[in-house]
Specification:
The protein is α/β, with parallel strands linked by helices. The protein has one domain: TIM Barrel, CATH 3.20.20.70. Helix content is 34%, strand content 15%. The protein is built from 8 helices and 10 strands. The strands form 3 sheets. It has a 5-stranded parallel beta sheet. A 3-stranded parallel beta sheet has the order 6-7-8. Helix 1 links the parallel strand 3 and strand 4. It is globular.
């Protein structure tokens, strides 16, 4: 049997920077900052996201989350979590720029019950932030049409929801993610809904460029162990996609050839 040489993986490049890890991890909901630090370390992530509108940036050092994230080791990705309209999203983004951060994860949610992105507000806010020269990674619905329109605006990455934030359902609509991957040339990063390691592996097997997750790690019974599991699942899923799975069949197929046997 002839084996093809191992395919060379393309690098993940966002805003002109190359990342070796395809896992982006969050900072909210951890039992403590110390556990968060250990989870970040074992996850292998190079980028961590922080909800600037929801964290304390003043007061005692032990209450400032930025004191527990090493800026020499991690790229800080501020996000606009908590914004339910364009104005609030822009305000949080501009606050991050005032602190020297131009990279932003944009999310504009429709309501507090579903935590689903508002597609119209997301598009409008993306347009304004790109015009203001932000490097925008935009959280959006798994809508291929909207994803393409966002890429056309000039965002740095499109981040379709796998399933609602914190739901732990994994990727619900594989077909839409497939279409988005076929349509876009910018990085596509599945954002939200990962509950356990198999969810990440299946998502990466769709060929996406990366995954962002928070609740699945932070709210696990053992966040540090789950962070390690997420790391390995992300890597395994990527390798499986590059390797190319066998087709699914209704009937069995012998592992050893039968030709020439009597």
């Amino acid at each position: 049997m002839h084996f093809s040489p191992m395919l060379q993986d393309k690098p993940l490049i966002i805003g002109g920077r190359t990342y070796h890890s395809r896992l982006i991890i969050g900072t909210g909901k951890y039992p403590s900052f110390e556990i968060m630090q250990k989870a970040h370390e074992i996850s292998g992530a190079e980028m961590v996201t922080v909800a600037l509108g929801r964290v304390k940036l003043d007061g005692p050092d032990e209450e400032n989350i930025l004191n527990f994230i090493n800026p020499k080791k991690y790229v800080l990705l501020p996000n606009t979590a908590g914004a339910f309209n364009v104005e609030d999203a822009l305000r949080i983004a501009r606050l991050s720029r005032a602190q020297g951060m131009n990279l932003i994860k944009l999310e504009v949610l429709f309501d507090a019950k579903t935590l689903l992105p508002d597609p119209l507000a997301t598009y409008e806010a993306s347009k304004k932030l790109v015009e203001e020269d932000f490097t925008v990674m935009v959280y959006t619905n798994d809508d291929p049409v909207l994803a393409k329109k966002l890429e056309d605006l000039g965002v740095a990455a499109v981040m379709p929801a796998g399933s609602p934030i914190g739901s732990g359902q994994g990727v619900i609509n594989h077909n839409n993610i497939h279409i988005i991957m076929e349509s876009l040339s910018c990085p596509v990063i599945v954002d939200a809904g990962m509950g356990t390691a198999s969810d990440l592996a299946l998502a990466m097997e769709l060929g996406v460029d990366g995954i962002l997750c928070n609740t699945g790690v932070a709210c696990a019974q053992d966040p540090v162990r789950m962070a390690r599991a997420f790391r390995m699942a992300c890597e395994a899923g990527r390798d499986a996609w590059l390797a190319g799975r066998i087709p699914r069949k209704i009937y069995g197929s012998a592992s050893s050839p039968l030709e020439g046997l009597r």
